[in-house]
Amino acid sequence: MSSESKQLKNIFDIPREELFVGGHSMCAGCTAPIIIRHLLKVAGKNTIIVNATGCLEVSTTSFPYTAWKVPWIHVAFENTGAVASGVESAIKAMKMKGILDPNEEINIIAVAGDGGTFDIGFQALSGMLERGHKVMYVLYDNEAYMNTGVQRSGGTPFGAWTTTTPVTKRIRGEWRNKKDIFDIVIAHGVKYAAVANPAYTVDMMNKFKKGLEQEGPSFMHVLMPCTTGWRFDPKYGITIARLATETAIWINYEYDNGKLDVTIPVKKRKPVKEYLKMQGRYAHLNDVEISYIQEQVNKKVEEVNKKVGREVIGPLEA
Amino acid sequence: MYPFQEELLNKDIIEVTWLGRGGQGAVTASELVAMSAIKEGKNAIAIPEFGAERRGVPVRAYTRVSKELKEIHKTPIVNPDIFVLLDPSLLSKAKNYIDLKDDGVVIANTQLSKDEAIKVMGIKVKEENFFVIDAKSIVMRILGRPIYNTVMVGAFIAIVPIVKLETVLESVRETFKGKLGDLNAQVIEEGYKHFLKK
Amino acid sequence: MISEKKLNSKQRKGEVKPLNSNEAVAEAVKDADVDVVAAYPITPQTIVVETLAELIGNGELNAEMIHVESEHSALSAVIGASAVGARVFTATASQGLALMHEVLHITSGLRLPVVMSVAMRALSAPISIFNDQSDIMNQRNTGWITIIASSAQEAYDSILQAYKIAENPKVLLPVMVSYDGYVLSHTIERVETVGKSVVEEYIPKKVTWNTLDVKDPITMGTITSPEYYYEFKYAQERALEESLSVIKSADEEFERLYGRSYGIIEGYKIEDAEVALLATSSYYTNLKVATDLARKEGLKVGTIKLRVFRPFPREELYSMIKDLQVLGVIDRAIAFGQKPSGPIANDIASALQYKKDKPIIQSIIAGIGQRRMLIEDFVKLYRMLVKNMNEKKFYEESIFYGVKGIEF
Amino acid sequence: MKLEKWSDFPLGGNIKDPGNSIENDMSGWRSERPIIDLEKCVRCRICWTYCPEGAILELDKEYKTSSGRVYKVTYAVDYQHCKGCGICANECPVKAIQMVPEEVSIK
């Protein structure tokens, strides 16, 4: 995206041209393609995508059909950060040697799910961030290994049922908290990182834009409600995404050169129960467990307001 | 001219084993001779025996030199034509590492006299083929550190002139840049002169 | 190593340098004007990475170096770089090569002309940092062209040839150039370099493979159904088979330009030999010395060096060995659970399956974890094979030469 | 794409026709189809924004409602790619999109 282009004000500013098209085989109601459509609308044609193994990868590039209209590569599950580093270094080298036009801007975007980021791809991501490659890394987080049939990952939140954290006599879904990938990324000295939500499309797109304008690596953590793994009716993907922000279980942070902010403030929070009750993965939770999750959210909100320096997330609705 | 030189220098391939302790530069010594021979249009190889070198561990290195561009094999040298001992404390243990050829030459860094050294070393060697040098006094004076490799290279090329002094000085200046190169060149010359006098 | 004939060649124009095989490889990478280097340190390969860092640092090589956090990422990064059209290089050994295993398959499957050097080393456990060939033998089904070099000179020349081969549009497969860890990787030898003119003369830079180009977007690394996968694998196998002729012509052209060639396999005193020992890398030069000594004892022996391991040169090998009585095959790796236990011995046995006149194949395992093999050990093996031939006594299983407690 | 022999296959599984998944017919995935009531539709663009398939078409086609309001754009559904997830209907702020069972809509 050229630097003179402005931030989007509303959804009427979104370009019409699609660089990620239909005919792919993502689940009906999957929210990942919503993220990707808008990612490419921001990035434009001069973009190379490096995609980790995952739902998005297998469902959009099933030979001989591809949904992608920009150059795209998949190598493996755990090495997206490394492959993207290679793409970026090669372009840098070839520009330096005059093989490529040094003035041509090419966006390099790594796209990976939570498994490919929190877990198996963590090392390669860390290497890429620490070395400072100019790559935007987009994590679409559906909070479990959905491609292989809903197994827990380091991104699975407390209480969530998965096939490997089942609801049984001894355990009641995931009993550990989600790994704080955002803070871990920032600890690498990354200049720009943001948390986004496809329900807030314009906010998400503006964050993509800022991420691409960075000199070095940037990181996008995007919520991706999964109809199959979260067990909800396909039509509710965006509703649930919105509720995640409205209940403050998902906070739309922006970390920009040392400054933390929340781009979607919430005046009055909805009880987290409203978010949880829409999803089959939380159907087993009892009141005690729900109030534990609510407490966790309350604590987080308090922390965030302190860090940001104002009450950016308001109190719970009565 | 030492009496053994003519026959030794006429061999297709001359085999040298260097024995020192990790950190004393046995590998560098073997390489300096090989590098210099290659520079002079000969063929040579330098093989280090130990991979993970640690300070203090006995280290062997080997040099094979062919005056012609003959292909050189790469086995370790257990029965060398010339054995160079870098570390005085290994004198009595040297026999565990080598099996000197008949007519083999030994150049040992030791403060002992030749006769004493031959006795302590306990191998079969002709008296006229045995050389001792107190390398410590030379290197402490010039380098200020007990690193014996370059003085022993100097001694070696005086006794076994398969490469010229100038070439070795050029090689050592490439290996150690700047002042360290100059100092080591001086050390080599000292070692060289030590045996040239005789 | 340079034979006398080759040294007298008029085409000689390079510079003579004392280099070990690791440094020779780095020198070749510099002369090939590689664009991106990604490598992770591992003994005994590390000198390659260090030398390249220095060459890039002082401007002798204009390239990007990626300080990756693992070998898996090293190969992944060069895949990414190759996929956008850069000439790339990586290097590894042992555990590092094993860690790359997954990505090795992906590189050949994506048909990217990646070149890698391997300083061959034993595999853990227990850990051994020393030489054998277990690392590359374990990668024999990954679809890489695998060249085993016998000297620093051959390592240097083979890297240059590797780009010529890999980037040939008929091939488009990755190439591994391996050489013995320590015994070659750390041994200083005489190397004649070609210099940077090699890029114009021999390996001009031309992107012959599919790349990620924003002006002509493609999707690379797709998923296939049972309806499609098989054909890609068959195409890969065909390309690997057919690469043998490209390897030959690359070597011939190299000889025309620079006066050195290595062929696919090489023999020494094989014409009238009854018994031969086949080996790879540094063992070949040792075996030549042993051959001369054994011949002095009246034994009609010779030696063979296998240079190209994948694709396996069946016909070239057969025409060299068909008149032998006995071929001893020295493997420095163990194919666990298989009898005989030498991977190359097995390859040869299966290559000869339908041939009528063929020697007896005697598998020999030696040099595991760099267990010392001196010239007299090789001579001993010759004597034993001649004796066995005369007594018509052979071992179906491998001879584990040099294991404590086992005598032959 | 004709891929009868192994030698017809592109190198390494690469797809050289970007965005050719658009050729696929996904209509069989659908049990319900969205039907847009262009009279009710306020052209807010929300359905277009949230469609995972890019199957809401935004056409530069004028539309005049029965009450006389003129819109410059018209929204339509690309039924070849719509999988019938219902996000559009659910998110429509004016309930202008109805999900109708396929067997009913075919009649």
TrEMBL record, chain A:
Superkingdom of the organism of origin: Archaea
Reactions mediated catalytically: a 2-oxocarboxylate + 2 oxidized [2Fe-2S]-[ferredoxin] + CoA = an acyl-CoA + 2 reduced [2Fe-2S]-[ferredoxin] + CO2 + H(+)
EC top class, as a word: oxidoreductase
The keyword Oxidoreductase appears for this protein: yes
EC identifiers of the protein: 1.2.7.11
Keyword Oxidoreductase part of the UniProt annotation: yes
CDD domains referenced in this protein's UniProt entry, alphabetically: TPP_PFOR_porB_like
PANTHER family recorded: PYRUVATE SYNTHASE SUBUNIT PORB
Assembly description: Heterodimer composed of an alpha and a beta subunit.
Protein name: 2-oxoacid oxidoreductase (ferredoxin)
From TrEMBL, chain B:
Keywords: Oxidoreductase
Catalytic reaction equation(s): 2 oxidized [2Fe-2S]-[ferredoxin] + pyruvate + CoA = 2 reduced [2Fe-2S]-[ferredoxin] + acetyl-CoA + CO2 + H(+)
Span of domain Pyruvate/ketoisovalerate oxidoreductase catalytic: 22-192
GO MF annotation terms: pyruvate synthase activity
InterPro entries for the chain: Oxidoreductase_gamma_subunit, PorC_KorC, Pyrv/ketoisovalerate_OxRed_cat, Pyrv_flavodox_OxRed_cen
One Pfam family named in its UniProt record: POR
EC number(s) stated in the UniProt entry for this protein: 1.2.7.1
Name of the protein this chain belongs to: pyruvate synthase
Taxonomic source organism: Fervidicoccus fontis (strain DSM 19380 / JCM 18336 / VKM B-2539 / Kam940)
UniProtKB/TrEMBL annotation, chain C:
InterPro entries reported for this sequence: PFOR_II, Pyruvate:ferred/Flavod_OxRd, Pyrv_Fd/Flavodoxin_OxRdtase_N, THDP-binding, Transketo_C/PFOR_II
Annotated segments matching region Disordered: 1-22
Annotated coiled-coil segments of the chain: none
EC number assigned by the record: 1.2.7.11
Keywords: Oxidoreductase
Catalyses which reaction(s): a 2-oxocarboxylate + 2 oxidized [2Fe-2S]-[ferredoxin] + CoA = an acyl-CoA + 2 reduced [2Fe-2S]-[ferredoxin] + CO2 + H(+)
Biased composition (Basic and acidic residues): 1-16
Domain Pyruvate flavodoxin/ferredoxin oxidoreductase pyrimidine binding: 27-250
Keyword Oxidoreductase: yes
Molecular-function GO term, any one: 2-oxobutyrate synthase activity
GO biological processes: response to oxidative stress
Gene3D superfamilies found in the cross-reference section: 3.40.50.920, 3.40.50.970
CDD domains documented for this protein: TPP_PYR_PFOR_IOR-alpha_like
Annotated Pyruvate:ferredoxin oxidoreductase core domain residues: 273-377
Assembly behavior: Heterotetramer of one alpha, one beta, one delta and one gamma chain.
This protein's name: 2-oxoacid oxidoreductase (ferredoxin)
TrEMBL record, chain D:
Limits of the 4Fe-4S ferredoxin-type domain: 32-62, 73-102
PANTHER family with a match to the protein in the record: PYRUVATE SYNTHASE SUBUNIT PORD
Pfam short name (any one): Fer4_21
Cofactor(s) for this UniProt protein: [4Fe-4S] cluster
Name of the protein described by the UniProt record: 3-methyl-2-oxobutanoate dehydrogenase subunit delta
Keyword entries, A-Z: 4Fe-4S, Electron transport, Iron, Iron-sulfur, Metal-binding, Repeat, Transport
Molecular functions per Gene Ontology: 4 iron, 4 sulfur cluster binding; metal ion binding; oxidoreductase activity, acting on the aldehyde or oxo group of donors, iron-sulfur protein as acceptor
Annotated source species: Fervidicoccus fontis
